[in-house]
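Hey, I was hoping to borrow your eyes for a little while. I'm sending you its amino acid sequence along with the C-alpha cells. Take your time with it, there's no hurry, and the full record follows here.
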Amino acid sequence: MRLEHIAWPRAEKYFKENDTVLIAVGSCECHGRHLPLGTDTIIPNRILELIEEKSGVLIAPTIPYGSTKSLACYPGTIDIGDELLCGLLAAVMDNFYRHGARRFVILNGHGGNIKPIENVGFDFEKRGCLVALLNWWLMAWDMNPAWKGGHGGGEETAGVMGVNPDLVDRSEIGGPLEYIHLSDRFETTGFRSVKYKGVNIEILRPVDHVTSTGGWIGPDHPA
C-alpha cells in the first residue's frame, strides 16, 4: 500500500492496526557508461512493486537522492551528503513515529547511504523502535555468491535489465577496464582500495581518479 495513493483516513486506520513502514532510499549517480544514473533507485522501486503484490505494509515515497561524494565529479550525479541524508531520513521517520510507526524497514539501493541510515537507525532504536536495513545487493550475494558484483557490474546491469532493458546502453557494455593505479607500487583493487605488498589499503580518492568509466570495480564485469 503506497502512502501517496491513499487519503489520510485510510492512513489513520492503518496506524491504528499496524506500526510498520517501508522506506526505500536510492541515489542518482554515475553507474559506468552503460547504466542509468537512477540505477540505485530503479532497482529498489521494482523490489517495492514486488513487495506490494504480496504484502499490505505501508510503503513510503522513495527518497531518490543519496550520499555519493566520490562520484560527484560525474555529470548527472546528485550528492546530498551524509548530513543532509541523515536529516531528511530522520525527519521522515520522525513524522511516521508521531503517527504510530515503531518498526521501520529501510530498503537501501546505494552503499554510500549505509552509514547515514545506520546513524539515524541507532537514534530511533534508542526511542524504542526496531529498524531493519536491507541492502538488496548484499542480500543477493547471500542468496547466490556467484552474483557478487561491483559498481555498475553484471549484478546491477541484470537488475536494471530486469526492470527495463531499454535503459541499458548495450553499446557501452564490455568496454575495457581502465583502472588508474596510484603508482607502480600501489595497484588499484577497488574504489577505495589499493594493494601494497599483498595487503589492501584504503585510499580515499574520487572515482574518476580510480577508473575512467565510473564503474565495474568488481568480479562481475558485464562482458
Remarks:
- The longest strand covers residues 20-25.
